[in-house]
Amino acid sequence: MTGLDERFLTRNGLAARQLAVLLLNHEPETRLPRVRDFAQELGVGNGTVQAALQLLEQAQAIETTARGHLGTFLVRSDRSILWRLSGLGTLLAAMPLPYSRRYEGLATGLRAAFEVAGAPFAITFMRGAGARTTALLDGKVDLVVLSRFAADRLIEEHPVELVADLGPATYVGAHGLLVRHGLTADTPGLRVAVDHASEDQRMLAERVFAGRADVTWVEASYMQLGEVFQHDLADATVWNLDEALGRLGPGVDVLPLGDEVTRDLALRNSSAAVIGRTDGAKALAAVRDTLDFTAVTRCQTEVLQGERTPWY
Which of 129, 142, 176, 230 has the fewest CB atoms in 10 Å of its CB? Predict the structure, then answer.
């Protein structure tokens, strides 16, 4: 670093970079904590905090004003500068493969929300909720997008927590029972396709055909269901209609799902959930309170309606 940037390598500069992380969660026209409170949190002296605040002002990352007994207020902040100085890096989210317009809208909305929050953001695409969760637990990604159905189970089993539930029809539009023409869900001896790499598909299929000793389970990727039916490798399965309707031939019927429990499962399966590690990534904690997840669903709707071009 040269010039002004060299100041951020000093003791005061290190405190300034730590302060930059804290200030990412402060909105303009709000009162800042007292200098001694900042000092206690950072484990430094009051003078170091004051010098650090001056460095951030000189870098045009913030502008503050003293209002007498009311304290010091944040007048303005440049979140992109604060983020760069904080050294938090880029937040990485793992999503399903963007094979549907709905997923493209979801990716577009997430990117837009993080941009507004001033956080560098990137998406990696991975098939299977289990694989995405493993990447999260291993620290390879900061966030994972999956169905609320899968999220609830993973939260029970792993140190992960719900960051956001985006609501029904944000993950998939609807689910249906796919059955070869001429058969029904009650036909004895059905060969049912199941993808154990997909928590959602597996759990739905197992619930729909629970207690059926006559069923033969056929391992098949949900990405290849069209070929599975075309080559007469399976008779039935359960999957989301965003994908299925565009891939199935005329020999497959789409039937509604059955009982109330299954409909409830399908509803939770249609809601997109965002999860993060329970211990929390520092970068996520720095912007979590400022993220507007309603903007995600607005963007997704615009993409679905053809009013916005997907960009992710």
Answer: 230
Name the helix (H) or strand (E) containing 7: none
Both tokens of residue 257? 């799902």
**pTM for the full predicted model:** 0.73
Q: How would you classify the pairing of strands 143-147 and 216-219?
A: unpaired
H/E segment holding residue 234: none
CA-to-CA distance for 245 and 240, rounded, in angstroms? Answer: 9
Can you tell me the distance from the alpha carbon of 40 to that of 19, in angstroms, rounded to the nearest whole number?
A: 12
d(CA 235, CA 223): 16
Q: Extract the tokens encoding 187.
A: 């036909």
Output the six-digit token pair for 43. 């484990």
The angle at the Cα of 279, spanning 26 to 56, to the nearest 5 degrees, equals 30
pLDDT digits (tens, 9 = 90+) for 155-184: 999 999 999 999 988 998 878 889 999 999
Which residues neighbour 81 within 8 Å (Cβ) at sequence distance 6 or greater? Answer: 59, 60, 61
Q: How far apart are CA 132 and CA 25, in angstroms?
A: 28
